[in-house]
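hey team, just a heads up i'm posting the complex here instead of the shared drive bc the drive is being weird again. everything in one block, sequence lines first with there labels, then the predicted structure for the whole assembly after. its three chains so it's a bit long, scroll down
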Amino acid sequence: MVKVILDNITKRFDDFAALKGVTLEITDKEFMALLGPSGSGKSTLLYTIAGIYRPTSGRIYFDDRDVTDVPPKDRNVGLVFQNWALYPHMKVFDNIAFPLELRKFPKEEIAKKVKEVAEMLRIETLLNRYPWQLSGGQQQRVAIARALVKEPDVLLLDEPLSNLDALLRLEVRAELKRLQKELGITAVYVTHDQAEALAMADRIAVIKEGEILQVGDPDEVYYKPKYRFVGGFLGSPPMNFLDAEVQDPYLDVYGNRILIPIQYRELVKKLGVRKVILGFRPHDAEVVRGVAEGLVGTVYSFEPLGREQIVTVSVNGASLKVFAPEGEHFTFGEQVTVKLREDRIILFDKKTEKALEFLEE
Amino acid sequence: MKDVETRPKRYERVIILALLLASLPLILGFSLLTISSLSTNMVTNLDPDSFHSTLENWINLFKGKIATTGGIRVNIWRITLNTLVVALGVAGVVTGISALAGYSLSRIDFRGRKILMVLLLILHAFPGVALIVGVYLLYRLTFPQSHDLVGLYSFIYVILARAALEIPMSIWLMKGFFDTIPWEFEWSGIIDGASRITVWRKIMLPLIKPGVLAVALFAFLAGWQDIIYVRTFLIHPTLATFIEANIEAEYSHMPLIAAAGTVYLLPTIIFFITAQQLLLQSYSGGIKG
Amino acid sequence: MRKEKLRDLSFFLSPMVLMVLLFYLVPLIMTIYISMTRMKNWNVERYLTEFVGIYNYERLFYMFQHDPTFKAVIMTTIVFVGITLMINVFGGLSLALATFFINERAASSYRLLWLLPRMSPIAVYSLVWYYFFHGSEIGTLNSILMSLGLISEPIPWGQVTPWGAWSVIIFVNGLVGVSFGMIVFTSALNQIPKELVIAARVDGASSWQISKRILIPMMKWHLLYVLTWQFLSLLTTYPHLFLLVEWDLVNRDYGTTLALYVFNTAFGRGEQDQGLAAAAAVVLSIIGVIGGFVTLKVLQFEKMMKKPRGDF
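-- predicted structure starts here --
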């Protein structure tokens, strides 16, 4: 088990910069999620750790060992691919045994190790089958078993759940998290699914266009987004954003005046910003009927979800989504007021789209 | 399905009929050849009176007599074997070399890769007849002194020379097959500690088995159907040179040659029936003619 | 790392490199060399070192101007390549479109049938047409026309110069080449999203309209591809022609293209003149290589070459 340190990694493909100076430290036994939209460079980063790609500049360390120029086979990493890449012409046993065979392990030891890992993943009855005879969930277990059998220092997972159906994904998610903790293995997990990252990871690194925007534990990135992008990428539905103008001590939000949240009063004065973006999560506000203190608008639509409902409110042309409790009945076009939970409001600088508290970093 | 199922059926029949009409000479020509081999005279004049069914041609053919009168004998089995040796040799050489080179062109980034690929395309388009003059000189210059080796030498030479002709396109074809295999398979092997050679042998080759088979099949047929190279380099006769030599020969009995032609056509027909999907799918890669 | 890559590359590439050297590069140099010697009847011992410079090229040029036989060869090459090319491209396109609109079973049977000319042994395929176009009553074409009362005497089609001979060689090679276009166009058609065809059908378009307005415009690149490659192929093909001429089915002068002329001059019956053949071969090669490069540029083949992934 090792600590992985990425030091200012840059990767260019011809004219395209896939990674721009990524620095990240993944501590021993940590479950790190690399979260970002497709094309953000998260998979490139994973494959750079694996050694498939060689960084254009920057260094990679496993503990104190500089592995930047070490070929993949000498890095002792296990990789689970999105499509699992099980060799279709080999039985499950041979698939799992393949890494050990390449390392010239004696036959009995291979058999023993394969059996162990198969039992751990509860696929010991499938060893004699071919991959195409297995269900998606079973194939995925085989892929994990193949990655684990060589007892890697780092387990790398590239969207391993995206080929499973939604229900199965929830199940495997919990299992995988537990497995990682039981084995105490350093894991790097690439995903574009924010719910997956929040549910499983110890820490999340949010990546956009080849840069890490924020690293932190799930609560941190969820409640304290450093950038508007992070707030907008995490949560379902994502954070609401409204353009606002500072008119001390008020904020003018689409014709509504609300007090500058208390945690920002000093900061706004100090920074002297005028144009900001007001962000809040759908569950950090409530919808009340009629005109009151808050953001006044009309009901554009509402979507019951069972336990709660999402109400889309149109405020002078801006649209925002708020959770409302079940049982409350709205009508289209009804006048309502959105009341915000003041302490959960985040203000972003309009120009840099960075949260005000990080603006001076 | 590539069209709506309710498309007018009437037009479909018209198209099928038109295609049949256009294909008629082709069907007619091949059928008449086969039928003639079962008759005492050629029936290519479409006159039903000239058809007198007999198995004599086939019997004579297998006995090795090429004239109903007189005693000109050839060992048709020997000739067929020669043809088979050339075809199998070409298939083996082409498949092996293109499986190797196709992999590296598809998967390894090295300087000169692009140039090599362009070069192969140019070589594929290169006039074969311009080469054969030089290839023959090389053949003459390297001809063995020892009399015992001449036959073997000419076999090896014709196989290599004919295979060379197929290699550029086969490499491209093979590269295309490797291109379809997801990179994850390769990476997975590499991370698990395999060298490129191991990846090629243990992971990639099994994965592109159909492609290997297709290339082998085309190369086999190329060697099987060849006439120019075998008549130029091979000392022993093949079915092609046998037919070539016996057209218009005074002693030869034409329905018997038709029987030989039918024998010669047989592998093609067998491949057609057994591997039609493979043929139609992978042929698009590249053919010349 | 670098050493390993070198080892891998030599493992994968050396057989091919050896093959290319031995059967392309060395022969090419030899052909060029022979074209500058007085090589005759493969008398290597006597003529291999008899260097004559560009004498053979001068002869070729002189023949081009004055020798009626050689002029016939050039004329035949032009007519043969031009007309066969058109037949190949449009025949292939028609076959692909026709089989696109009929049910899959019938379609693949027809496609296989039309692959037969290319797949058959050259000797057998030529034998088939030998009887079809035979100059006596035994010839299928003659007997059909005679029984229809269109002709009273059998006509030796291939000996009617020039168009009889040209028609036969164009017909025989045309059928071989059609399958190339057919296969390329069929695979192009299969890549066109079927929703486009279904949408057009729903809008009431006929098969002809679908072909003209949707399918053919989407196959422009493939048309160009077939056109240029088939041009190069026809310019250099000769095995079928060789047999038709050798069997006297078609007239020697008007059944011989430049490629066959090279072969027959170097390997044919009677007096062989490898020096002259090699010179003609070099001329043919230059046309071929220029054509090849033009094709690559026109088709932008470079764009199709994806870079391998990974830096290991």
